[in-house]
Design goal:
The chain is 84% helix and 0% strand. The radius of gyration is 22 Å and the shape is elongated. By secondary structure, it is an all-alpha fold. Helix 1 packs across helix 4 and helix 2 runs antiparallel to helix 4. It has 4 helices and no strands.
Length: 103
């Protein structure tokens, strides 16, 4: 691609919309993950007895293990949500922007 195509893309309203949507979506997912981690840390700091409580009376596993694993799994889920939208809506917008710029 040459510089004129890059300038067309950069000045395109569709490109600006794509960037805005992608950034907003990424920030929302980041805020969700940050909120989950913050809640986990606050739970450790202010209510450690919750995480130290056993799942059942005879169990050696505490609530901290499934909650911690759930936190890790939530990161994978949020990443999957981002990838699904990026491979769908964002890729379609990107293809339309490129097609428009090449004309």
């Amino acid at each position: 691609m040459n510089d004129s195509i890059y300038l067309k893309i950069q000045n395109s309203p569709r490109f600006k919309e794509l960037v805005k949507k992608r950034e907003r979506f990424a920030w929302i997912l980041s805020a969700i993950m940050l909120g989950l981690y913050a809640a986990f840390i606050l739970l450790i700091a202010y209510a450690p007895q919750v995480l130290g409580a056993k799942l059942s009376p005879g169990s050696s596993i505490t609530w901290g293990i499934p909650i911690g694993v759930g936190l890790i799994i939530s990161a994978f889920i949020l990443t999957g949500i981002y990838v699904q939208r990026a491979n769908g809506e964002f890729d379609e917008m990107n293809a339309a922007i490129l097609k428009e710029a090449e004309q």
